[in-house]
Amino acid sequence: MLGITVLTALLACASSCGVPSFPPSLSARVVGGETAQPHSWPWQISLQYLENNRWWHTCGGTLIASNFVLTAAHCISSNQIYRVALGKHNLEVEDEEGSLIVDVDTIYVHKNWSYDLAINDIALIKLAEHVELSDTIQVACLPEKDSLLPNDYPCYVTGWGRLWTNGPIADELQQGLQRVVDHDTCSSSDWWGTTVQKTMVCAGGDGVISACSGDSGGPLNCQLENGCWVVFGIVSFGSPWGCNTFKKPVVYTRVSAYIDWINE
């Protein structure tokens, strides 16, 4: 069923996915505290875990079907209980209008995920129920298999991660412009070197705008010429020297390299 859903999304993105009812303002950033327009990224989810009778945000993710969420493998721990919050803008507003809390059925972590090498950092979360799509809850499109974006292509990362290195977690959803850095550049010695594999994509690295801790698992949103948004990357890792380190762009799992795995 998921494979059929994904195929439909690829063939009919303009009508079924990737077109928010509330268009985003494309000038904000994540690190720096700029806030996204409410519900302008309606496929963005908050992955939350239970601790001391309270739910805590841990990672982002992307709704790609009415009962499937895409996130990063490193966000998942086998000893945690998770839930997914959809249609959220402000995480501090418990009964936010247009939002929905859904339990998790099954989590599929890529069998070749390696924490040490940060490769295959991808996971699928099957929700306990199908969610009803609305103006505030929509699905993102997936990119065409093995597709690449050119150097300097403008994309946006979204999430509730830290507003600056070691800073506070955001209450309201943040967004930030992240321009794609091609593999040849990002794998050069003064950038990320051999750490970056071809199943990854780099974006950012200007030392000003970046994702940060807590944004993990969330989408790198890239708008295609037809106007629809695709989730081209999943926030995987960044620089140990800080969230917005020059020539150390955020590294994302490249979703187009995993289309077959998602369809399975």
Q: In percent, how much strand structure appears in the residues? A: 25-35%
Return the CATH topology of the largest domain. Thrombin, subunit H
Shape: globular
Count of DSSP strands:
12
Averaged pLDDT: 89
CATH level-1 class of the largest domain: Mainly Beta
Descriptive notes:
This protein is mainly beta and 264 residues long. The chain has 2 domains: 2-22 and 42-127, Beta Barrel (Thrombin, subunit H); 154-256, Thrombin, subunit H (Beta Barrel). It has 4 helices and 12 strands. It has helices at 2-11, 13-16, 183-186, 259-263, and strands at 44-51, 54-65, 68-71, 82-86, 100-109, 123-127, 154-159, 174-181, 200-203, 219-223, 229-237, 250-254. The strands form 2 sheets. Strands 1-2-3-6-5-4 form a 6-stranded antiparallel beta barrel. A hairpin with a 5-residue loop joins strand 10 and strand 11 (229-237). The longest helix has 10 residues, at 2-11. It is globular and about 45 Å long. The N and C termini lie close together (10 Å). Mean pLDDT is 89; it is low at 1-12 and 28-33.
Q: Tags for this entry?
A:
264 residues; Peptidase_S1_Elastase_sf; signal; 4 helices; Thrombin, subunit H; 2 domains; disordered N terminus; mainly beta; Trypsin_dom; six-stranded antiparallel beta barrel
